Amino acid sequence: MRIGIIGLGRIGLMHARNLAQTEGVDEVVLCGRNPERVAAAAVELERALAPGAPAGLAGELAPDSAPARIVVGGGFGEELPSLDGAVIATSTATHPELSLQAARAGVPVLVEKPLALDREELSALADELEATGTEVMVAFHRRYDPAHRELRRRVQAGEAGTVRAVTAHGHDRTRLTPEYIPTSGGIWLDMLIHDFDSVPWVVGERVKSVWATGSVLDYEAHAEHDDVDSAVAVLVFESGVTATVSGLRRNEAGQDVRLEVFGSENTFGVGIEPRTPIVSTEPGVPAPERTYTEFIDRFERAFRAEVAAFVDLIRGSGENLTPPRAGLAAIEIALAADESLRTGRRVDLV
Questions:
Q1: Which of 69, 86, 139, 287 has CB 3.0 to 4.6 Å from 102, enough for a Cys bridge?
Q2: Homologous superfamily of the 2-140+304-323 domain (CATH)
């Protein structure tokens, strides 16, 4: 199996590494218009895939099997006819065009979120992509995360009883670079969109209203681009249950992503483990010895499961949990949160 990747930043290189370490993949083709950058990315990947590479490069969950071959390719369009699948990890503005290009060529696609920044554009794009008959998988990785899937199973099976409240935390350890902030899409679309996708998916209900607030409390560069670095959104579901979602840029304690469901019979949570970056002030409770430093480390298991699911999808044996239309609810919530932040009002969705 030959899978191409376009977009060789941090996310693209992670996907390339994980694909090269996934059973059934023979070649990972790096695509790009800048030969020097593509060659440099290949060198970086070869270091990560070398025998005995440290966990910081190879990944803490790297398999023992020999990796796929890394190929320095040409332009995306040039390589498409020879690919069995394509991963798109470029800037958001290019996602629609590149996804359509691959899908029309009959090449299954894994595209980074968001697929589009506007609900109407995403809906129209989903129509176009579905019309091609080609599988397109959007990278909402939490739906492939074993812990999130188990949480959803338990909630949907009624093991929590009546869901009474939900809390979610998305706190990134690292600060955004000044260069990335203006093109990021903002805290709702760039960061908390994952929570806006996973929370309703776990609860199994539609969100009927959104209220949000936020401030710049850490890094003034966000204010320069009409963004915030500290935010909270309150989602009210059709049943009346409320979810509170908090987002922070730069949380030096460590990468902190949790989702907790409080029911009448049980409470279940994701992200509660020895590396959760919380220091208890209760007597005799030890602080975590180490925490996650990046979201790539925090969700390594999920990212690996995601590309494994993509490989299965290419084979025709897997299930697409994140088709383009699945992102409509998340983008609707994100845009409502942005409107609420700017107006101070609740935004009704239903």
A1: 86
A2: NAD(P)-binding Rossmann-like Domain (3.40.50.720)
